[in-house]
Amino acid sequence: MNGATDISGWKHLHENVRKLWRISNLITGVVVAGFAVIPDLIIRKSAEKWPFFPFAIPLFVLVLVVGLGQWIIGRSFECYRYELGEDDLAVAKGVFWKSWRFVNRNRIQHVDLSSGPIARALGLVHVSVFVGGMQAAAVSIPGLSTHDAEMLRSKLIKASTEVIPPDSISASTPPPAPPEFPNG
């Protein structure tokens, strides 16, 4: 692979994520083609002699969106990988624009697991990892099996709780007093 980082040994997403992405692409194609019905009707009504069969524009849009989407889905699946190292979680993705994101395990604040109805039917979970100081997820991994997502979450949470050992925090040390302001 050409690039800054060799990801050949990293883990792939679950195979069912291709089905999920293909279903999503098909739904998107139907919706976009549905919007193309209006220009098709306007053009056919205003043109004296329409050289194409009725609803040719929506059909062309459907084939284009779904066909291009299916090709990108195949490439995206091959390019989307992740690796949990000792110090960080690394995620690589991108067909045209490659990106490698490394999140230090010590900075992980919380991990969210989510799954829509189609993803649940396919046994998939979307993992979002949040770090301190960011409102959006620092990294997301779509399409892991429920078991793999739970294992990843537990390893990440375990690592974040091991950062500050509980016995190093003294309960007998009172918090600092707030500063006093002069009356005036």
- What is the total number of structural domains? 2
- Measured by DSSP, the beta-strand proportion falls in 15-25%
The gross shape turns out to be elongated
Side by side, the strands of the main sheet go 1-2-3-4
Q: Treating each run of at least 4 consecutive H or I residues as one helix, how many helices? A: 5
N→C terminal distance: 69 Å
Whole-number average pLDDT?
83
State the low-pLDDT regions, or none: none
The run of helices and strands is EHHHEEEEHEEH
Structural class: alpha+beta
Determine the fraction of residues in helical runs and give it as a percent range. Answer: 40-55%
CA radius of gyration is: 25 Å
Question: Sheet bearing the most strands, described?
Answer: 4 strands, antiparallel
Number of strands: 7
How would you concisely characterize the structure shown here?
The protein is an alpha+beta fold and 184 residues long.
